[in-house]
Design goal:
The chain is mostly helical and 712 residues long. 73% of the residues lie in helices and 1% in strands. The N and C termini lie far apart (115 Å). InterPro entries: ARM-type_fold, Neurochondrin.
Length: 712
């Protein structure tokens, strides 16, 4: 064994005999003075030439951590020796050790992080060579630690982020190294960095934003690449937004090459992702800037996707998708839009051409590419467009529908991969870190709004049905519903889950109206009906979920009318519970409200319904109509309604308010329900008569109800 090691040792000695001599002196040192002198010589030799990993390890074996620890913490330096010289020597040794990744992760290095961080902001002569050397060695140590698997977390916990921010803002020696290390830490652990040092990071952002706004040289393009990393996960300060917008306006308003323009587009996309359009000022300058942004994005998308055989810069194109999505939002905003009507018309035309390029690209996507994040991003922007516009590019969209259904099905069946794709898209397009809530983890949710529009039209609906979209939507609805069921913490669910469920209900409502035969013959709708019946009783009791309850109740009532012969609807406990909950939803919408100076109350919305009635009223009227249609089909329903006292309470409500306060459409809806209940059941008729039903019918000119109650 000795003979194997001896040649290597001799080789090391022949390569650096001076270092070997100093190491020998270090090993033979008898006191601190001799050890200190030997360490100075070793440090000098190390800096004078390159050393390999084996030699570095031999230095560590000779020195260890004990003496460097003492050098870093000592408060008493020898006479004539500045105290920072001892610390500089300790840091130089640590820097030497940290060149070995194993030693960089050593606990004895990690516990020095707080001490090393203080050196970054220590005051002293900026021209002192020893102090500069210590700063360089400190950055070398911290950078080496950051490169280890758990290093960023240790640095953040040790206060390094704040120290780096202060070092950068102080613009002292090595401030550029501070910025580089900050960039690495933010890329590795953005959330933790902001949690530990938000005020300091915001100060850096302010400084960078101001520099960006003032820059007249090539540094502004470099800042474009840095700034996205420093945008906080929460609110961006308004003064930063002003500076960033002003800087981007100057850059994008100039004639640029692609390497200059692309970072600016990516920064603008990151701001759009974080702030929507809030970072763009109102007025003429803001509208021109937004129009320019969207125009440039559309041009970039077309150039990238229409030319076959060219390599697509996916990160740039995906950033352009985000800017197009911002354009779609502003073009469809009715109030307080940044854009004027002529600008909207022009941008819609430009975006239509870009969406055509996206469709062309997706038509070329084979099965082997379906799991690529850029495809996901392309489907996302198409979904955003279809959510607002389905009349244009109708032929192209119809041709693409089979692919979209297959794509959504593939990602639905591999949900974990879909979620990972959304994170990759966010990384590709917007940010180097985790995605925000606007990047949902499944493709189907992106397509739901567009499919809701398309199921109204005969041609697209037939394609969707042929490709199996209804069955896929039923499975998706049931899976998403599980997330809201008892046992799951609904408070942590994103709003997109509930919105997705509501949109699914709208699609099913379209199918109930336009394709009733499908509802009757496809078994997936039987399963859906079971879920609706089981879920509504608890849903109507939950605060803040009235709109979803309205969708579920109305859909269930319409489906019950089509599936009335199903055994599940023949007075089973589940069906009785569902209809009792539906009656609760329909009956609690209006109340009698006293008005000052009037003897009679007026019919008014109940408090829970007031805030959502604009979105709810169509569902409520449709639900009343559907319930009316169910009464003659389900013989047990009228007695159940009588036991709930809904017809009696409805007549009582109408009798207690001024007929002039009840709109004609409300009178028609109430009469429809009362007439069908009266026709279906003698006891219902008797109960209505006892509640002054004939007199109320006369007051409201409900001729059909009056005639029905006059019968025996």
């Amino acid at each position: 064994m000795a003979s194997d090691c001896e040649p290597a040792l001799n080789q090391a000695e022949s390569r650096n005999p001076t270092l070997e001599r100093y190491l020998g002196a270090l090993r033979e040192a008898k006191n601190d003075s001799e050890q200190f002198a030997a360490l100075l010589l070793v440090t000098k030799a190390v800096k004078a030439g390159d050393i390999d990993a084996k030699t570095r390890r031999r230095i560590f074996d000779a020195v260890g951590f004990t003496f460097p620890n003492r050098l870093l913490t000592t408060k008493e330096a020898p006479d004539g020796c500045p105290d920072h010289v001892l610390r500089a020597l300790g840091v130089a040794l640590l820097a030497c050790f940290c060149s070995d990744p194993e030693l960089a992760a050593h606990p004895q290095v990690l516990n020095k992080i707080p001490i090393l961080s203080t050196f970054l902001t220590a005051r002293g002569d900026p021209d002192d060579a020893a102090r500069r050397s210590m700063v360089d060695d400190t950055y070398q140590c911290l950078t080496a630690v950051a490169g280890t698997p758990r290093g960023p977390r240790h640095l953040i916990a040790g206060g390094t982020v704040s120290a780096l921010c202060q070092a950068y803002l102080g613009h002292g020696y090595g401030f550029d190294q501070a910025l580089a290390l900050l960039v690495g830490l933010l890329a590795a652990a953005e959330t933790q960095c902001w949690k530990e040092a938000e005020p300091d990071l915001l100060a850096v952002l302010r400084g960078l934003s101001e520099d960006f706004q003032k820059a007249e040289d090539a540094s502004k393009f470099e800042l474009c690449q840095l700034l996205p990393l420093f945008l906080p996960p929460t609110t961006v300060p308004s003064e930063c937004l002003r500076d960033l917008q002003a800087g981007l306006a100057r850059i994008l308003g100039s004639k640029l090459s692609s390497w200059q323009r692309n970072p600016a587009l990516k920064l603008a996309a990151r701001l759009a992702h974080a702030c929507g359009s809030d970072w763009i000022p109102a007025g003429n300058s803001g509208s021109k800037f937004l129009a320019l942004l969207v125009n440039l994005a559309c041009v970039e998308v077309r150039l990238a996707l229409e030319e076959t055989g060219t390599e697509v810069k996916e990160d740039v194109v995906t950033a352009c998708y985000a800017l197009m999505e911002l354009g779609i939002q502003e073009c469809t905003r009715c109030e307080q839009s940044l854009l004027k009507e002529p600008q909207k018309v022009q941008l819609v035309s430009i975006m239509k051409e870009a969406i055509g390029a996206v469709i062309h690209y997706l038509q070329q996507v084979g099965p082997e590419k379906q799991k690529e994040p850029f495809v996901f991003a392309s489907v996302r922007i198409l979904g955003a467009w279809l959510a607002e516009e389905t009349s244009s590019l109708r032929k192209e969209v119809c041709q693409l529908l089979p692919f979209l259904v297959r794509y959504a099905k593939t990602l639905y069946e591999e949900a974990e991969e879909a979620n990972d794709l959304s994170q990759q898209v966010a990384t590709l397009a917007i940010s180097p870190t985790t995605p925000g809530p606007t990047w949902p983890g499944d493709a189907l949710r992106l397509l739901l709004p567009g499919w809701c529009h398309l199921t109204v039209e005969d041609g697209p609906r037939e394609i969707l049905i042929k490709e199996g979209a209804p069955s896929l939507l039923c499975k998706y609805f049931l899976q998403q519903w599980e997330l809201t069921s008892p046992g799951h913490d609904t408070s942590v669910l994103p709003d997109s889950v509930e919105i997705g469920l509501q949109t699914c209900c709208h699609i099913f409502l379209n199918l109930v109206v336009t394709a009733p035969g499908l509802i009757k013959r496809d078994a997936c709708f039987t399963s859906l009906m079971h879920t609706l019946m089981a879920s509504l009783p608890s849903l109507v009791q939950q605060q803040g979920r009235l709109l979803l309850a309205a969708n579920v109740a109305t859909l269930g009532l319409l489906m019950a009318r089509l599936l009335s012969t199903s055994p599940a609807l023949q007075g089973t406990p589940a069906s009785r519970g569902f209809f009792a909950a539906a009656i609760l939803f329909l009956s609690q919408s209006h109340v009698a409200r006293a008005t000052p100076g009037s003897e009679q109350a007026v019919l008014a919305l109940s408090p829970d319904y007031e805030g959502v009635w604009a979105d709810l009223q169509e569902l409520w009227f449709l639900g009343m109509q559907a319930f009316t249609g169910c009464v003659p089909l389900l013989p047990w329903l009228a007695p159940a309604a009588l036991r709930s006292r809904w017809p009696q309470e409805l007549l009582q409500l109408l009798g207690s308010v001024s007929p002039n306060s009840v709109k004609p459409e409300m009178v028609a809806a109430y009469q429809g329900v009362l007439v069908e209940l009266a026709r279906a059941n003698r006891l219902c008729r008797e109960a209505m008569r006892l509640q002054a039903g004939e007199e109320t019918a006369s007051h409201y000119r409900m001729a059909a109800l009056e005639q029905c109650l006059a019968e025996p």
